[in-house]
From TrEMBL:
This is Spore cortex biosynthesis protein YabQ. The keyword Membrane applies. InterPro entries: YabQ. The chain crosses the membrane at residues 12-29, 41-62, 68-89. Pfam families: Spore_YabQ.
Length: 105
């Protein structure tokens, strides 16, 4: 049986995992792609990378012990990321994209 502080540290670590999943999602989908094949490929790549990140982090956090608060924390971390940091990260990606497209010309 885990103590309260161990469960709290697991919860906070899973919040970070949720934010990382949101970061991966925004990185792959910050630009709308018109072709369906590229969009499907990007979705597959981001899903695979997110799954690898979640599984490896769960291994290091609590050796794959999945409790109900693990899923709750990952969803809450994703939600917090999307409602707070996502806008700033997307603006950084847009400015980097402008700089890179400016240097190509």
């Amino acid at each position: 049986m885990q103590g309260v502080f161990d469960q709290l540290s697991d919860f906070l670590s899973c919040l970070i995992i949720g934010a990382v999943v949101g970061l991966i999602y925004d990185t792959f989908f910050f630009k709308k792609i018109l072709k369906r094949r590229k969009r499907d490929l990007l979705f597959f790549m981001s899903s695979t990378l997110s799954t690898i990140a979640v599984i490896s982090c769960l291994y290091f956090i609590n050796y794959y012990t999945i409790r109900w608060y693990t899923f709750l924390a990952i969803v809450c971390g994703f939600w917090l990321y999307k409602n707070s940091i996502s806008f700033f990260y997307k603006s950084i990606l847009r400015s980097v994209n402008k700089v890179l497209s400016f240097t190509k010309k």
